[in-house]
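Protocol step 4 of 6: structure prediction from sequence.
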Amino acid sequence: MAYHLTGDFQKDSEYFNRKLGTDVSFDVIFHPFVLGGRKAGLYQIDGTAKDSLIERILAKLLETRAEEMPAGPGAFVDQLLPYGQVSLLKEEEEIVTTILMGMPCLLIEGYREVIVMDLRSFPERGVDEPEKDRVMRGSRDGFSERLTCNTALIRRRIRDPRLRMEKLQVGKRSHTDVALIYVDDRVDKELLGRIKDRLNRLEVDALSMNQESLAECLFPYKWCNPFPKFKFSERPDTTAAHLLEGNLVVLVDNSPSAMILPASVFDIVEQADDYYFPPLTGTYLRMSRFMTALVTLFLTPLFLLFVNHPQWLPGFLQFTALTDPVNIPVFWQLLILEFAVDGMRLAALSTPNMLSTPLSIIAGISMGEYAVSSGWFNAESMLYMAFVTVANYTQTSFELGYALKFMRLILLILTELFSLWGMIGGLIFIGIVIAGNKTIAGKSYIYPLLPFSWSALKERLFRRRISFQDSKNH
């Protein structure tokens, strides 16, 4: 049953405080004060309105004496609020939605309507697109290091009163602000309680490395398993989509990315471009990403296996056999190139922008043509490692890219030592490492492959068309 304003400030404010969750969501602000001898209160979403303009309007209103207070809200707007974008609302659902849209609402004792002021000022294009998480189509905004700015970007996309943003402080010395965000009627309440309990019991001096420090405290998994347990995203649209799917999101002040949990390997591989294109194109992009990840894992170990045993090479691949002299064993060539690529990547991070282009040309010439002509590397080794290096960037997750790299190194070593049986043993080891993983919710890391569910697997592999029935069910 819809709630109707009564004019009783205590009753009305208690209802809206409960409806909006002002005692839980730190970004939903209710500021009570006395206006012309009457109780009044202002509702607003932190980070979505022009604070300087609100201060000027309130300063003018607070000069109003009791005898100057109009009898009704309409007269109040006409006489005391000479601001163009002002309206009156009395329906409870409209009031809640308007507040969540970022428009401050003024509740005054004795008035059965709320005064709405459109003073919105959302973070827009000035918030740059993430360098690593770009899309071909879609919004170009990204998270920044300011917590309230990030929560406002999420609120702009989910205008639902059931969206909750709880604020906690972590670190005995740093007192870092951490926001736990979820949709109240979709989140796993058991997981939510467990995460909140862990956050409240954290005994750390400071989150020196922001989200990575928090992730290691939340889920102290075995260090020897490199596969990521969380999905990180710098995109508000991706984060909002995961919230609507029932995931939890953790934002840390001074960090420009959201930590999404729980996350399986299928969640981590997904990208925003899968959904910004039609289903056929989105499915193609997703399948291409999966196939590229498999190729980067197996390409160089298979090349090494066939170099060591050229008689196993199929007839249609005979052209790939090495014909030039091999001065350094191919295994060591590939191993050196694996570390050289990381060295160049680290060097690129520390290179000033004005020097990056000329140094890239020099590195390309010296590492390419001269490395081959000098006899250090064979052209085939350089080619396959170049493909693997470029293909790694199809994954937005750095953690997943390095996990695949470590597995590839293990495959290379086992293939060199034990030939075909080494590769088979390496594949079994990789399968055990991945299958033995658990998400923070305690579920399988590779569901719906284990346990197998074809209907769920189709959802993960194929981008299906969003229908009216889907919207109705949600």
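Step 5 (inspection) to follow. Strands lie at 28-35, 38-45, 86-89, 105-108, 114-117, 163-170, 176-183, 231-233, 248-252, 258-261.
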